[in-house]
C-alpha cells in the first residue's frame, strides 16, 4: 500500500524537480492488476462511469527470468486529468484499493503522473 508519507515525499519531489504547476490539473494514471483480463475488462466501464478514461488492458511483457511470475499478469490502465494534493491523492488511492477489493481484482497497483497532453 502507498502511504501518506510516500505521497508527501512524491509531491515534495515533484515541486523540487519539475516545473509543473501542482495547483493545475495534471494527467494521473491509475493501474490495476489481475490474472484475468476479463475481470479487468468488466471493471473498466465501472471506472469510466466514475469519470476515468480507459487507456489499455495489457499483459506484462518481460523476458527477464526473475520476472517470470509477472508474465501472467494483466494490467488495466485508466487516466483522469485532475488536481491533487498528497491528502487528496491518498483519499483517491484508498478509494481505488477499495474498488479493487470490491470487484475481486488482484490489486490496485498505484499511479503515475505527467503534465496533461497539450491540444493540437
TrEMBL record:
It comes from the Bacteria. Residues 7-113 form the Regulator of ribonuclease activity B domain. InterPro entries: RraB-like_sf, RraB_dom. This is Ribonuclease E inhibitor RraB. It comes from Agrilutibacter solisilvae.
Amino acid at each position: 500500500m502507498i502511504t501518506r508519507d510516500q505521497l508527501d515525499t512524491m509531491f515534495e519531489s515533484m515541486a523540487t524537480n519539475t516545473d509543473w504547476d501542482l495547483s493545475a490539473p495534471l494527467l494521473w494514471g491509475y493501474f490495476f492488476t489481475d490474472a484475468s483480463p476479463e475481470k479487468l475488462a468488466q471493471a473498466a466501464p465501472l471506472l469510466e462511469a466514475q469519470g476515468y478514461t480507459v487507456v489499455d488492458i495489457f499483459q506484462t511483457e518481460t523476458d527477464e527470468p526473475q520476472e517470470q511470475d509477472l508474465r501472467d499478469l494483466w494490467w488495466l490502465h485508466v487516466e483522469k486529468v485532475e488536481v491533487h494534493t498528497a491528502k487528496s491523492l491518498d483519499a483517491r488511492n484508498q478509494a481505488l484499493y477499495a474498488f479493487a477489493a470490491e470487484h475481486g481484482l488482484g490489486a490496485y497497483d498505484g499511479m503515475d503522473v505527467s503534465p496533461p497532453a497539450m491540444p493540437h
